[in-house]
Automatic annotation (TrEMBL):
The lineage of its organism: unclassified sequences, metagenomes, ecological metagenomes. This is Helicase. GO terms for molecular function: helicase activity. It comes from mine drainage metagenome. Keywords: ATP-binding, Helicase, Hydrolase, Nucleotide-binding.
Length: 274
């Protein structure tokens, strides 16, 4: 097909072409292609010394007698083809230009690189489609590597914490830029909070054991228990605490049920005696 196109182009310029091939099959293929293109009448076959004189003369006569009317709207079609050719040339030039990036990539390379990554992401690409980076055209390869490293670290942290919304303890915490030495101060604060939480948990457990109540499982229940404790009236001044401790022995009667029943019986007897 390439040879046929070259011959057709030369004929359009009024040139003569001598096409020579060692194999007859190649000559026949080119002749067949020229016939399909309507250029068979411009082809004179001289295959070898075996070419028949009669066939040779008939080919020349056919060419002389052939009439070739001018094709309709030829100039208009030629103008259209030239315009389309120019558009394709400008498009190819644009796709091969190296603009809009600091990586030295052509527009074609950028488009196909983005498309490969979009297909690799699948449905995730729809979620990040609206994300824009205004200064991305100025990024160098080092800038991209730096951002990729930080994003990978962020993804690893997200895998550890599982989620970052209202369910997370640090939700709403927006620290200012931290200096390298600030981590020690933050560590001390966190350790203090952890110690306080352990102490609070132990105190809540002690209260639950003293009252025979179920263990507190969250801060809301612990706060409710604390509010109830604050509502208890203070003990009277005549209470003998040494006797009280012996009556409510945490080892033999941790919930105080036996002592409470015994006090109720004593109170009833005293009431009858009065």
């Amino acid at each position: 097909q390439t040879i046929t196109n070259v011959i057709a182009s030369a004929l359009s310029l009024g040139k003569k072409v001598l096409f020579v091939s060692e194999k007859l099959a190649a000559l026949e293929v080119v002749r067949h292609r020229l016939n399909q293109a309507g250029l068979g009448n411009f082809c004179l076959e001289l295959h070898s010394h075996k070419t028949q004189k009669k066939k040779f003369i008939e080919d020349i006569a056919s060419r002389i007698e052939e009439q070739f009317p001018a094709p309709a709207q030829f100039q208009a079609k030629l103008t259209t083809l030239q315009r389309q050719k120019g558009e394709l040339a400008r498009y190819a030039e644009l796709m091969g230009s190296r603009v809009g990036n600091a990586l030295g990539l052509t527009v074609n390379e950028i488009f196909w690189s983005a498309e490969r990554r979009r297909q690799a992401l699948g449905e995730i690409s729809l979620a990040i489609k609206a994300i824009a980076f205004p200064d991305a055209s100025a990024w160098t390869l080092d800038d991209i590597e730096s951002r990729t490293t930080r994003l990978s670290a962020l993804a690893a942290l997200h895998d550890v914490i599982c989620h970052f919304d209202t369910r997370h303890p640090w939700w709403g915490f927006q620290p200012r830029p931290l200096a390298p030495s600030d981590d020690e101060a933050i560590g001390r604060i966190i350790q203090g909070a952890l110690d306080a939480a352990v102490h609070s948990d132990a105190a809540a457990l002690q209260v639950c054991n003293a009252f025979g109540a179920p263990e507190q499982t969250d801060l809301h229940a612990a706060a409710k228990t604390r509010a109830l404790l604050e509502q208890l009236p203070p003990p009277p001044g005549t209470v003998d605490f040494s006797l009280l401790r012996r009556m409510f022995d945490p080892d033999s009667d941790p919930s105080g049920q036996f002592s409470s029943r015994l006090l109720s019986e004593v109170t009833a007897v005293v009431g009858k005696a009065r």
